Amino acid sequence: xxxxxxxxxxxYTSGFFIWLCRVTVILIGLFSGIASYLIISGxxxxxxxxxxxxxxxxxxxxxxILMLIAKGGKNNTIKEGPxxxxxxxxVIIPSSSLxxxxxxxxxxxxxxxxxxxxxxxxxxxxxxxxxxxxxxIRNNKYKVGWRVKVCFQIEIHKKDKALLxxxxxxxxxxxxxxxxxxxxxxxxxxxxxDLQVIIDHFENYPLITQKRADYELFKQAVELMEQKEHLxxxxxxxxxxxxxxxxxxxxxxxxxxxxxxxPVPRPSVVGATPLEIQDPNWLAGFTTAEGCLFINxxxxxxxxxxxxxxxxxKLIQHSRDIILMRSLIELLNCxxxxxxxxxxxxxxxxxxxxxxxxxxxxxxxxxxxGVKRLDYQDWxxxx
Length: 383
Description:
By secondary structure, the chain is α+β, with helices and mostly antiparallel strands. The protein folds into 3 domains: 2-72; 119-257, Endonuclease I-creI, CATH 3.10.28; 274-382, Endonuclease I-creI (Roll). It is built from 13 helices and 11 strands. The strands form 3 sheets. A 5-stranded antiparallel β-sheet has the order 3-8-9-11-10. A hairpin with a 6-residue loop joins strand 6 (175-177) and strand 7 (184-189). Helix 2 packs antiparallel against helix 3, helix 4 runs parallel beside helix 10 and helix 7 runs antiparallel to helix 8 (233-243). The protein starts with a helix and ends with a helix.
């Protein structure tokens, strides 16, 4: 029975089945017309016409039974994955254009085998997901009437909690925090003393995206707080001027409270060149944070199954980092940069030979981490 099912399934999923259906419909229509003509003309070949129609009906029944056998079997299979055995189900989606895009893996996060995170990987990951926060909150318990808080934060999907634990262990500072009613987990370092460890890391392994400007401003604020200047009005105004040039600038409340503040000049981040990506592990970390691995499935009349599978590796970044994105072309020796929105650009590698000969060997050597690594392994299987 399994052998019969396999044979029927192969016929049903092949181009021969579609061809057979078309031929059968054409023959039935042709001979039905001939039979009708013979009956109307009063000729004596009606019996032959009936036989032809009966043969067509038998063919229709045969095709219908073949389809039921092929589709009625078990479509689920078992495969062994990194997290154990998983059950996969085949889903047939009727669509003129199918596109499978996974932004977060359906697999649970697993603890990576590496005991230590490469420092350049961590810098690349921070260039993608890190945040340097400076908060100034009204609080009458303080002499100046305001409380200053600094925080280094990485917030990602909770499936990658194991990766954040690795980062926490790397710094040996900070805490993990899971917000309520959110599908994320945060790594936070808020102590001014502990933040010195963070600053030391990025001095030795510098950021290379435009995020570096926020880091430089953040570092200035931390240095002022180390000197206790945030407890004086003069020092507070310096910190407000720093915040005015960071991230989203000042809130309406701060603008109203400090109308005379002049923002400090925002540090200039010189556009990166291939030489400034000092270690390929930076790209592995940046891709773990920002990379997209696409599997596109489209209808195609030129393929026997009626579908075409396309793979794509993509990185998206703000247009201010266009020089850095262009440098990836030289680093990977493939791909192109495309501006698809006013303030966003993409690095795209989609040529199959580039993916198999350049992109995949690169990330096999400089590995991704977390859930993105599991997605990458599945992506490689398709390739």
